[in-house]
Amino acid sequence: MSPALAGTRPLLTASLKQEARSFAPWIAVVTALSISSIIVYPYAFPTQADRRQLAATLGANPALSLIFGPARDLSTAEGFNTWRALALGGFITALMAIFAVIRATRAQEDSGQAELLASGVLGRSARLVVAVAMASLASIVLGVVAAVATGLSGSNWPDACLLAATFTVTGLMFAAVAAVAAQIGSDARTASTIAVATLGTLFLLRGYIDTMNLPAWVAWTTPLGWMEQTRPATENRWWPLLPGLAVALLLSVVAARLQGRRDFGQGTIAPRPGPARGKVRSTTALAWRLNRAPVISWTVAFALLGSVFGNLATSVTSLLAGNPAAANVLAGGATAPGALVGSFLVTILSLTGIIAAVGGVQSMLKVRAEEMDDRVEPVLATAVRRPSYFGSNILIALAGPTLGLLVAGLVIAVMAGTADIGVSFGDVLLQAVATAPAVWTVTAVSVAVVGARPQVKIAAWIGVIAAFALTLLGPTFKLPDWALGISPFWHVPHVTAASPVWSGLVWVSLFTLGFLAVGLAGFRRRDLAR
Amino acid sequence: MAAANEVIEIEGLTKNFGGFQALRGLDLRVERGQVHGFLGPNGAGKSTTIRVLLGLLKASGGKVRMLGADPWSDVVELHRRLAYVPGDVSLWPGMTGGEAIDLLAALRGGVDERRRAELVERFELDPTKRGRQYSKGNRQKVAIVAALASDVELLILDEPTSGLDPLMEAVFQEVVGEVKARGVTVLLSSHILSEVEALADRISIIRDGRIVESGTLDQLRGHARTSIHAVVQHLPGGESEAAAALAAVPVLEDVHLDGRRLSASVDSARITEAISALTGYGFASLTVAPPSLESLFLSHYETTEGEAGGAK
């Protein structure tokens, strides 16, 4: 074995033992996503008429194809599964791979664990190789588990295997992306931001390309587009996976080269001296200071997201006009064309709100991270009340996503208001404002978890996951209204409707207040850093 | 009234974490103006006690008063009057040391500008570096400056000098000496025995969640054993018989005889008895050493059989 790789095998074995468990939830989620479509499809859409209607409505909704990709064939369970799971499953697998690689590289360097390892008999490249190998192995296991489970649930085996293979290859590509990001960013947070931003941008780009009526070759311009071009359940092409594998290999080599040339613990951006005196003098200023960088980058991202959605909104009438079936069904349901655009706006703003809440949950989880890193201790050892410390962080966690949502709403409003699609600037902005209380509820779930039961950190994401599943996936399951109503976004009033129902927001806000109260009371009473 | 003079008053404090009992009836008293050394092996419960005093952990049982108030419920009022240095300082990665000092001081209610500048100077701290760039010792200095720059009545120091170089350690001892001269009470948890010896008026030793010994250094020395090393002149009845005879002397313990070299330990209060018992053997040389601080602590830190399984 080459000296640069000395110690790889024992380190890989040890790391796998340590990390294997952390992959289980990711594998479970992706597998569940895939098998659920196969199992539910015959019950939710028993007749051909049901299936045609599905294709004409949800399948033709441009806001949904932004997330799911184009619906090629919704008349079979396998085609339905491909539409629902391919883009989303790949996205989740990619996140798993990114976090696994960053944890095993940068995060270890930050914590000093890597220094212990590097002082042992360990080649220079070994840690990076182990990180990439572990994430790749996890992606492969995910693919195998998803394929077998989907096949056993009643899917065609070739379709299930190809679909699962796209998950694996997406995981391999983004393990390599993360490996490069870990060489560029000089700490774990910067590195994962770079990698996740790359994934988000490529995902959005792929969605945008799928939604707009662009020439066929454009679909080949992004790596996530290649995955989609395998077309499981319709054409079952395996060869578009090859460029994906090539990218994974190429980026891994680049990462190894970069790692070989940099100093331990350093990135490409050298740190500069900062101010000798501080201006941060209150807990709110501290919370803002710690969240400033992510809030600013989220806001910029939302301006971009808004312009994508806004662009989509301006062409929504022509997109629907090109799809008479969709327009027919929607108009046939006694829905005026104006209201059609209205509900499209509700969908994209809800989607924006759910994404915005991710930032809010991250801010709250940062409070827990600060606590576990012993940085809350010195603050609370001063004359600071626990509720005011926690409250300051809640304020930022609610304000950040609101800002993002409103910025995106503003951009969409400007674009939609100037295009002649039957909604005004004011309508769109008001719709964005009306969405904010639902964002607060979802974020407040994480406030309650971090305040009262931070040991089950993962529960902080329940609000976001439930809102996402119910708002986007719920309708594809034909869930009853009471179930869809669990998501606060279901209660967001349609401001362009004849008589918008505003009372839903009151109920939603009562839940928000309840979650906040639980969080505050919990944080006041519990032991810290346990 | 004695109670008014007590800055820290702990009686029968217990703290459980799930099934694990970290503190099992701890008693601790610190009087105003004292520097109180708080010692004990790793995992004995020092930091847990300090976190209870800071209101970060809630006591499971017992009575805790600090500066006449309850550390759990009167947090803000109390924290205006105290400053704290943790043993493992973690700074905000993107904030400079100077910013961290100003933040912590501002949250406590203000900073003495002159003292802040003086401390930065004396500890040779570069306040323009970011949290992630500091070495362990420098992070420690940031926390020390932030704590000592405020005007407080009580300092709680949890292994404050871990990672400091000897020069800075000396500066630290000097500064704490000045603080003490101003009448500030200090609770000093430390493993550096010379530091404790130089600064502490009283010492409490904690083991397995209980105080096992408390008093001035002299009192503690009084309880500990003095060691005797001698080269004796004659061994009646040969080496093995003499060894048996010496081992049978009631005041002597840990008797080792190697040729004519004798070593043993004796209760510090009974040295005269021990020497009289040995005079019959005649001395070629004799050293009677008072217990060193190290041996004092080792005797308290060592886990006796049966208790070994209790700690984590």
From TrEMBL, chain A:
Membrane-spanning residues: 23-42, 83-105, 126-150, 162-182, 194-218, 238-256, 295-320, 340-361, 394-416, 428-451, 458-477, 497-523
Top-rank lineage group of the source organism: Bacteria
Keyword Cell inner membrane belongs to the record: no
Keyword Transmembrane belongs to the record: yes
UniProt entry keywords in alphabetical sequence: Membrane, Transmembrane, Transmembrane helix
Listed name of the protein: Multidrug ABC transporter permease
From TrEMBL, chain B:
Keyword Cell cycle appears in the UniProt entry: no
Keyword vocabulary terms for this entry: Antibiotic resistance, ATP-binding, Nucleotide-binding, Transport
Domain of life, per lineage: Bacteria
Family indicated by similarity: Belongs to the ABC transporter superfamily.
Name the record gives this protein: ABC transporter ATP-binding protein
SUPFAM superfamilies assigned: P-loop containing nucleoside triphosphate hydrolases (SSF52540)
Annotated Gene Ontology cellular component terms: plasma membrane
Annotated membrane topology: Peripheral membrane protein
Domain ABC transporter: 8-233
Organism: Actinospica acidithermotolerans
